[in-house]
Amino acid sequence: MKKILIINANYYKKICQRLSLSAQKILKRNNIQYKTINIPGVFEIPFTLKKFVKKFDAFLVLGCVIKGQTPHFDLISRSAFDAIIRISVDYNKPITNGIITCLNMRQAIQRSSISQNSKKINKGKEAADALVALLKNEPKNS
To answer: Which domains does the chain have, with CATH numbers?
Structure first.
């Protein structure tokens, strides 16, 4: 059985809770066991990945970055995304990315919606679907 860790950067608690609930629903539906850890923000995701990279087989990262009046949005997003992909490749571990980057809170709410009527797909669900697909496509002897 694969060991999965959801890393939930819950700076925007309501948004990230909705991302996490949607991701967990997909993993449960596919009988995938997981653990969840909550951390302060997206910038802390790479450190957390490195801390647990040898203890888990795959990771699902969740979070939200909303653009403000400074370049902080660009710096946080770029550095976190670059580090996540680098860790995935360096350690040969699947890491799916459910971090939403938005221009405003309205977009964040849309992209984390748990409503069936929403036009936007919940990014937590999308990342969980991707992780399930990756795990199903792995060779059986890995």
So the answer is: 4-136 (3.40.50.960)
First to last CA, the chain: 11
The tens-digit pLDDT sequence of the chain (142 residues) is 789 999 999 999 999 999 999 999 999 999 999 999 999 999 999 999 999 999 999 999 999 999 988 778 889 999 999 999 999 999 999 999 999 999 999 999 989 987 666 567 899 999 999 999 999 886 655 4
Phi and psi at residue 40, to the nearest 5° = -65, -40
Within a 10 A sphere around the Cβ of 23, how many other Cβ atoms?
28
Active site members = 72
Distance between CA atoms of residues 123 and 47, nearest Å:
22
